[in-house]
Design brief:
- This protein is about 45% helix and about 20% strand.
- It is built from 24 helices and 22 strands.
- The N and C termini lie far apart (about 60 Å).
- About 45% of the residues are buried.
- The structure holds ligand C2E and magnesium ion (MG) (2 copies).
Length: about 625
């Protein structure tokens, strides 16, 4: 295909159905009411994004605004887009290869890209599409009352597809409403402030901090002094957003930004890089010792818990540090290096900082490569499930197996889920991957039954992301009907973080799943804060006591006490208990004495490939 030839739009338009017309009207009404009520414009734009997303499964909406100089776009709102992707979108220069949004602003017309992986209009940001599984993207210019293009409003789908007339209408209305929302801003000055500052925290935007970094580097070179760039990323912030909701996450971010501000001196700057990431420019610091003192101060500032709407939350952060001019003088290069160092701080166990070293350049490339491999792996059938038996303590009967995923990586060999599940979650691939796991586990369980083995319950792990995106109930029902497995032989393992915020939607979804007849267990119980009474109300069947408590039971009296207390309370509520990570006969004895129902662990069997499990079962 010739690069940058003007593609022919192949979208067919048909009349909207009465239902679709009504949906469009409702969207319009909802937003105009918010505008009339004087809602914060950013919130309004975020709501427009959410309403558009609701109209297309597996999609995310993005609103990007042109900066003052009109030379780049920054994300104004994208409530469902991972922070990492937002960081990479910020600063996008409109142009013929700059994706759908960059093109919509560049061409000043709607741009519908059916396949971002091949379309020349995505030439410059192809990697972004692949990394975040953006299959198609449709963008609509946002205009001021006077017709000037202010930015773009886009809907991205994980599948390759073109918009229906309904989606096109939604985009038009959405962009129009965003234009109105922005026009409500008292003056252009406010918009200018928004463009250079982060609306949530009031901190300078990514672009502005980058400018300040460039200035600090130039000054350091002139005056032969040094400085440092800190790339700060909150630890486990996604968990707060996923479990307590974005509203709550935003409030926490505001508080955290406040504390970070109090750490910097007048000559320093701090800004929000996007999502849960911050940049701090330290001017005029000589030597790593002085930088480390400031880095420690930043870590310490998170020491006290935060009070947010009645919840007490603790936060910690990981930091990567690049020093200038030592690590370079180009601002973008410094940001990349500090970013790479930040990942090493995460790997080192979080809540710490790391200085950039050359070795890190190699590592971050490896991480990226893994993400790209993951995409192909599903199509190539590189995943397998291993099965770990779960036994009744009283008589040693095998009641079920937990399906645990592994990846036969073509170059790196068998890989444990801890290495790739977080990456799959970050790029959205966990949804199709999770569906594959459900389908395969049900197929295997049904096959065993068909071959006359004693029926076993197969337990499947679900990621919190699967609850928020994708149609989980349909996926579970589909896996059951495709395999012919009766629902009572399937158990779904969910983590406490899914339940931390009792939204009606989550309760409804869980009830819907239970309605199918499947069993429900709470994985890694004891690491979150769910109340037992609440779990009982949700009709949860089992608690899986986290292995961190079980592992040290024999030597740690406190852990043993926790395990006994959980078992006792669960019994009072008629909830079954499973102890995970049972590695010794001693631990099994203690659990039996405490009245635990079931056990799982290396003491009995490791997770085994399907045929090895069969051998293990028949050897018993
Ligand atoms: P999990 O659900 O808590 O699974 C139990 C983990 O403990 C498994 O690790 C298992 O191999 C390990 N384990 C079992 N018995 C023992 C023991 O006696 N001692 C020790 N030290 N470890 C034991 P694995 O297979 O590496 O899986 C890690 C986590 O990855 C799982 O924790 C689960 O959260 C996640 N995971 C695995 N498969 C899937 C999947 O299909 N989908 C999703 N979303 N997550 C999965
Ligand atoms: Mg599990
Ligand atoms: Mg577990």
């Amino acid at each position: 295909m010739a690069k940058f030839s003007k593609p022919v739009e192949q979208v067919q338009y048909t009349a909207l159905s009465p239902e679709e017309q009504e949906q469009v009207l409702l969207l319009q009404q909802a937003v105009l009411e918010e505008v009339a009520l004087g809602q914060d414009p950013i919130r309004v734009v975020e709501n427009i994004c959410r309403l558009a997303e609701a109209a297309l499964p597996n999609s995310v909406a993005t609103c990007m605004l042109l900066n003052d100089a009109g030379d780049h776009l920054d994300v104004l709102a994208a409530p469902s887009v991972p922070a990492e992707a937002i960081a990479r979108l910020n600063g996008l220069c409109p142009g013929p290869g700059a994706g759908s949004c960059g093109n919509a602003v560049y061409r000043q017309e709607p741009v519908y890209v059916e396949n971002t992986f091949v379309d020349a209009r995505w030439h410059d940001i192809r990697l972004l599409a692949r990394d975040f599984n953006i299959g198609a993207c449709w963008s609509m210019p946002i205009r001021s009352a006077g017709g000037r293009v202010l930015g773009s409003f886009a809907l991205s789908s994980f599948e390759h597809r073109l918009p229906s007339s309904f989606h096109r209408k939604l985009l038009e209305i959405g962009a129009h409403l965003i234009g109105i929302t922005l026009a409500r801003q008292e003056s252009d000055a406010r918009i200018a402030f928004l463009a250079s500052h982060d609306a949530l925290t009031g901190l300078p935007s990514r672009a502005l901090v980058r400018d300040r970094l460039a200035q600090a580097v130039a000054r350091a070179q002139r005056e032969r002094r040094g400085g440092a760039l800190l790339f700060i990323d909150l630890d486990n912030f996604k968990l707060v957003n996923d479990s307590l909701g974005h509203h709550f996450g935003d409030l926490l971010l505001e508080r955290i930004a406040g504390r970070l501000k109090s750490c910097v001196r007048d000559c320093d700057s701090i800004g929000r890089q996007g999502g849960d990431e911050f940049l701090m420019v330290l001017a005029d610091v000589e030597g790593t010792e002085a930088v480390s003192v400031l880095a420690e101060k930043v870590l310490d500032s998170m020491g006290d818990p935060f009070q947010v709407e009645g919840h007490e939350l603790t936060a910690s952060l990981s930091m990567g540090i690049a020093v200038f001019p030592g690590d370079g003088t180009d601002p973008d290069m410094l940001i990349r290096k500090a970013d790479a160092a930040m990942y090493h701080a995460k790997d080192a166990g979080r809540n710490t900082y790391r200085y950039f070293t050359e070795r890190m350049n190699v590592d971050s490339a490896e991480h990226l490569a893994l993400r790209n491999d993951l995409r192909r792996a599903l199509e190539q059938g590189e995943f397998v499930l291993h099965y770990q038996p779960q036994l009744r303590l009283a008589d040693g009967a095998v009641l079920g197996v937990e399906a645990l995923i592994r990846w036969h990586h073509p170059r790196q060999g068998l890989m444990a889920p801890g290495r790739f599940i977080p990456i799959a979650e970050a790029c959205g691939l966990i949804v199709p991957l999770g569906e594959w796991v459900l389908g395969e586990a049900c197929r295997q369980a049904a096959a065993w039954q068909a071959r006359g083995l004693t029926p076993l319950v197969v337990a499947v792990n679900l990621s919190p992301i699967q609850f928020r995106r994708g149609n989980l109930e349909a996926a579970v029902a589909g896996a059951l009907s495709a395999s012919g497995l009766e629902a009572r032989w399937l158990e779904l393992e969910i983590t406490e973080s899914v339940l931390m915020h009792d939204t009606g939607a989550m309760t409804g979804l869980i009830q819907g799943l239970k309605g199918l007849g499947v069993k429900l267990s709470i994985d890694d119980f004891g690491t979150g804060y769910s109340s037992l009474a609440y779990l009982k109300r949700l009709k949860v069947d089992k608690l899986k006591i986290d292995q961190s408590f079980v592992r040290d039971m024999e030597s740690d009296e406190e852990d043993a006490g926790i395990v006994r207390a959980v078992i006792q309370m669960a019994r009072g509520l008629h909830l079954a208990t499973v102890a995970e990570g049972v590695e010794t006969a001693g631990a099994a004895d203690m659990l039996r004495a405490a009245g635990c129902d079931e056990v799982q662990g290396y003491h009995y069997a490791r997770p085994l490939p399907a045929h090895d499990l069969e051998a293990w079962l028949s050897a018993r």
